[in-house]
C-alpha cells in the first residue's frame, strides 16, 4: 500500500525547545488509515493535523473500544532522527488490539508509514538535551452505533508532539503512595493493554494521592491487594540487597519496553535480576532491615523515575537517602545514551529514520 501525502498549506511556528512540557503541542501533520470489513485497512495517508469529525454515537466514545501506544523519536549525535525499539510498540499495539477485538495492523507497514510521517515532520524533532518527539499511534472504533459489540469500522491515526520532561520534578525522586482502596487492573482483564479505560480508572486514586501530597499511586494486585504491580503509569523496580526485582508479568501489568530494556541491561551488567512476585510487606520489611536500597519506575515518557518516599498505611519510609540512587541513575544514563545515539545498545534497539 502506498501512503498518500497531502501537505499542510501553512506550517505552525515551532515552540521554544527550552520550554517544552509534555503532550500539549502537536506537529503539522498526522497519519490516518481506515478499516472496514470489506476493504480491511485502507486509504493510508499523511495529511494536515486536524480535528476528527465523529458522530456523537461513535462507539469508542461510549464503550472505550480503543488502543494506543507511546514511543519517541530522538535527534541523534549525527543530527539524524532515530527511534527506540519501535517494532516492540507495534507488536504491543497488536497485542492490545487482540484483547479489544480490534483488527490488527501490519506491523512492518505501520512502522514504514511512521517513518514516512517522521520524514515529513523531521524539523519538529527537537535537539535540546532531554527533549524528543513523542509518538502516539491510536486506534479507535468508529461505528455510529450504541449496541454493545465490536465495531465494524476503525480509524488508525498517529500524532506527534515535541516533549521535554514528563514530570515537573524532572529526574528527581517522587513520593508515592500505596492505595488499598482502588485497584488498577485484575488478572484476566485489560491491565496488560494500552487501552483508554485503564487510564480513566486510575484517575481517582491518582487524584487522592495528589491531594495527600504524593506524585503517584503504587498499585497492588487486584486479587489479594498484597503484591506490587505498577507505579502510576510505569513499571516498577526495587533494589533489595544486591537483587534487582520487578514484578513478573502476571497478566495485569503492562509489559513495558523500558522495563524490558532495564532487565536486559542489568543482565549484561552481570546483576542479579528477578522477575517475581514482590509483596508490599517484603518491601516494608526490607526497609526495616536496612536492605531496601532503591525504588524506581520505568516508562517511555520519563525513562526512569526514582522514588524517594513511600507511604503504606500509616508508615512513610524514605527510600535510600531520599535522593536519586546509583542504579536509577545508571539505567537512566545508559538508556538515554542509547536513545540519543551516544552509545550503541546491546541489541538492535535503534531504528534510524
Ligand atoms: N505501565 C503503564 C500502565 C504504561 O502506560 C506504560 C507506558 O507506556 C508503562 C507501564 C511503561 O511502558 P513502556 O516502557 O513501554 O513505555
Ligand atoms: C509512559 O510512557 O511511561 C507512559 O505511561 C505514558 C503516559 C503518557 C500514558
Features of the shown structure:
353 residues, alpha+beta, 18 strands, 23% helix, 29% strand, globular, binds pyridoxal-5'-phosphate, binds 2-OXO-4-methylpentanoic acid
Structural description of this entry:
The chain has helices spanning 59-63, 86-99, 107-120, 196-200, 203-211, 257-268, 280-288, 326-339; strands spanning 4-5, 29-36, 40-48, 66-68, 71-75, 81-84, 132-141, 154-163, 174-178, 216-220, 228-231, 235-240, 243-246, 272-275, 292-299, 303-312, 315-318, 350-352. The chain is α+β, with helices and mostly antiparallel strands. Helix 2 (86-99) packs across helix 3. The two termini are 19 Å apart. 2-OXO-4-methylpentanoic acid is lined by residues 70, 233-234, 299-301.
Helix content: 10-25%
Strands, total number: 18
Question: What value does the average pLDDT take?
Answer: 95
Secondary-structure element order, N to C: EEEHEEEHHEEEHHEEEEHEHEEEHE
Q: Sum up the overall morphology in one term.
A: globular
Number of helices: 8
Amino-to-carboxy terminus distance: 19 Å
What fraction of residues sit in β-strands?
Answer: 25-35%
Low-confidence stretches: none
The chain-level structural class is: alpha+beta
Radius of gyration: 21 Å
Query: Mind describing the biggest β-sheet?
Result: 9 strands, mixed
Bound molecules: pyridoxal-5'-phosphate, 2-OXO-4-methylpentanoic acid
Protein topology:
Blueprint: E1 4-5, E2 29-36, E3 40-48, H1 59-63, E4 66-68, E5 71-75, E6 81-84, H2 86-99, H3 107-120, E7 132-141, E8 154-163, E9 174-178, H4 196-200, H5 203-211, E10 216-220, E11 228-231, E12 235-240, E13 243-246, H6 257-268, E14 272-275, H7 280-288, E15 292-299, E16 303-312, E17 315-318, H8 326-339, E18 350-352
Parallel strand pairs: 1-3, 9-10, 9-16, 13-14
Antiparallel strand pairs: 2-3, 2-8, 4-7, 5-6, 5-7, 6-18, 7-8, 10-11, 12-13, 12-15, 15-16, 16-17
Helix pairs in contact: 2-3
Bound molecules: pyridoxal-5'-phosphate and 2-OXO-4-methylpentanoic acid (COI).
The site of pyridoxal-5'-phosphate has 14 residues, from helix 6 and strand 15.
